[in-house]
């Protein structure tokens, strides 16, 4: 599932590609991918200019010049491609936004969605999300205060979007590995110096992943050499049975709260 680095990478690239462009046509092949009558969606969005593409947590917000907002959550298996009919992927397209001869294809939206809201309603939809971990105002002090005397496993808390927005299964594992903290440790057992390290690791891992285009392998457009660059740089996620690059121990996979979890049994205490 795309997480903060993947969606922020999409945001940056899409702002280069479609901001200021007018949507010339809308095609909806799966009605469940939108939240209103397809004809209403099409009539509201067609001939509107993309003012900006923003991100909140794992969501993208496409702001239109009529004040409406298309709210995207790709969920598990969702991705996007921007290009022409000739170079589009040979995959089922749920929604297509056209910008003349170029199109933005939404692929794999079996669980994901592209919903249409006014600004007030989209604010309400996102009101429960926690702070952005890369926000400069989200300091170490703010993180320590947020963590406070909360209970439960640290991985489960990092996955909680009301706690911190944007971190998912991949980066929760990578952050804990970087910090040297086992993913199934209870929050109340983690000392203050470890909490500070967890904060620093969260910033470093997310920034590094963003710099390398996240771990999603599918390019956003033809010639996109950035997207997916972090996939080969993951140190524990999806590395079961491989040797830890720190100590040489074997990476282990376990299930925590029905989520697959990867860690080094030697490096992470």
UniProtKB/TrEMBL annotation:
Keyword hit for Mitochondrion: no
Keyword Aminoacyl-tRNA synthetase attached: no
Pfam family, one: Fapy_DNA_glyco
Annotated keywords: DNA damage, DNA repair, DNA-binding, Glycosidase, Hydrolase, Lyase, Metal-binding, Multifunctional enzyme, Zinc, Zinc-finger
InterPro entries: FPG_cat (IPR012319), FPG_Glyclase (IPR020629), FPG_N (IPR035937), H2TH_FPG (IPR015886), Ribosomal_uS13-like_H2TH (IPR010979), Znf_DNA_glyclase/AP_lyase (IPR000214), Znf_FPG/IleRS (IPR010663)
Reactions catalysed, as given in the entry: 2'-deoxyribonucleotide-(2'-deoxyribose 5'-phosphate)-2'-deoxyribonucleotide-DNA = a 3'-end 2'-deoxyribonucleotide-(2,3-dehydro-2,3-deoxyribose 5'-phosphate)-DNA + a 5'-end 5'-phospho-2'-deoxyribonucleoside-DNA + H(+); Hydrolysis of DNA containing ring-opened 7-methylguanine residues, releasing 2,6-diamino-4-hydroxy-5-(N-methyl)formamidopyrimidine
Family statement: Belongs to the FPG family.
Protein name, per record: Formamidopyrimidine-DNA glycosylase
Organism the protein comes from: Neobacillus driksii
Lineage, top ranks: Bacteria, Bacillati, Bacillota, Bacilli, Bacillales
């Amino acid at each position: 599932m795309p997480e903060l680095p993947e969606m922020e990478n999409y945001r940056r690239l899409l702002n280069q590609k479609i901001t200021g462009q007018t949507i010339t046509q809308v095609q909806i092949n799966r009605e469940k991918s939108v939240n209103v009558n397809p004809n209403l969606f099409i009539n509201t969005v067609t001939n509107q200019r993309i003012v900006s593409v923003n991100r909140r947590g794992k969501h993208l917000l496409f702001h239109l010049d009529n004040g409406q907002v298309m709210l995207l959550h790709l969920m598990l298996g969702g991705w996007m491609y921007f290009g022409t009919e000739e170079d589009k992927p040979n995959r089922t397209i749920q929604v297509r936004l056209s910008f003349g001869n170029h199109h933005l294809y939404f692929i794999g939206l079996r669980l994901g969605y592209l919903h249409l809201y006014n600004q007030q309603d989209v604010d309400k939809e996102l009101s429960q999300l926690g702070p952005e971990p890369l926000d400069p105002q989200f300091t170490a002090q703010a993180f320590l205060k947020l963590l406070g005397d909360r209970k439960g496993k640290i991985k489960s808390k990092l996955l909680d979007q009301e706690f911190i927005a944007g971190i998912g299964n991949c980066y929760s594992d990578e952050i804990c590995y970087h910090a040297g903290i086992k993913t199934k440790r209870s929050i109340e057992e983690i000392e203050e110096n470890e909490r500070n390290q967890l904060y620093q690791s969260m910033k470093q891992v997310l920034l590094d992943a963003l710099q390398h285009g996240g771990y999603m392998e599918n390019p956003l457009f033809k010639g996109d050499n950035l997207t997916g660059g972090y996939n080969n740089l993951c140190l524990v996620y999806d590395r079961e049975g491989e040797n830890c690059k720190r100590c040489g121990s074997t990476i282990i996979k376990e299930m925590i709260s029905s989520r697959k979890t990867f860690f080094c049994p030697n490096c992470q205490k």
